Amino acid sequence: MSEARKPLQLVAGVTVHTAADRRLAVEHWLLATVGERGRDRARMEWDKHDIAVLPLGGLLAAVRIPERVVHTVAHTDHPGMVAEFLAAALDDGPVIHDQPGRRYYALVPPSMPERWSAAAPDWRSIGVDFLGRGAHLGIPQTSRELVDAEGRPCYWVVPMSSPGMLCDQMAVGRMMAVAMRRLAPEGGA
């Protein structure tokens, strides 16, 4: 390992990894969702289009949330404030924003769609849906974050902090409970 790629040791026994090292580790983890040929294709898609279509259901699933739901719960549509809200509400779990589709995707454990299936009909009433086994999702390059989102159709609102670190299911459930209350018609639940 070259000197430039070695993790920093600032305090005896404490290793600090650079942001680039963490992004690379997350990239490798995401690429584990596909086989050898799939990894080459995904890397090419990231290089050419900044986004790669990866399968869900093995290592991760997603909760697809319309912008209007997130903006209602966050009380804002300002990108920076939405990012801060989502990071706080979802305990720094990873979230992707699809600007043309006007949707956010909270990345969750692959068991969530089945485990929370009883909530699915209520959540669908406000446009929220689970994406799991058999679904695919456009995942932006790990370096595509809010700070460079201008002109990019898809970016990380809350980046994945390390491999396998997904949104907490209970945090997503709490956010959806708030959304259901705020979006319920007058006289509703």
Give a written overview of the molecule.
With 189 residues, this protein is α+β, with helices and mostly antiparallel strands. The chain has helices at residues 19-31, 36-49, 67-74, 79-89, 112-115, 120-124, 169-183, and strands at residues 8-11, 14-16, 51-55, 61-66, 95-98, 103-108, 129-131, 136-140, 154-158. It has one domain (3-183). The protein has seven helices and nine strands; from the N terminus they run E-E-H-H-E-E-H-H-E-E-H-H-E-E-E-H. A five-stranded antiparallel beta sheet has the order 7-4-6-5-9. It has a two-stranded antiparallel sheet with strand order 1-2. A two-stranded antiparallel ribbon has the order 3-8. It starts with 7 loop residues before the first strand and ends in a 6-residue tail after the last helix.
Number of domains: 1
Largest sheet: 5 strands, antiparallel
The share of residues in helices is 25-40%
Order of helices and strands: EEHHEEHHEEHHEEEH
Mass-distribution shape: globular
The portion of residues forming beta strands comes to 15-25%
Number of strands: 9
Helix segment tally: 7
Q: Major sheet: order of its strands?
A: 7-4-6-5-9
End-to-end distance, in Å? 58 Å
Mean pLDDT equals 87
Radius of gyration: 17 Å
Weakly predicted, low-confidence segments? 1-6
Question: What class do helices, strands and sheet pairing give?
Answer: alpha+beta
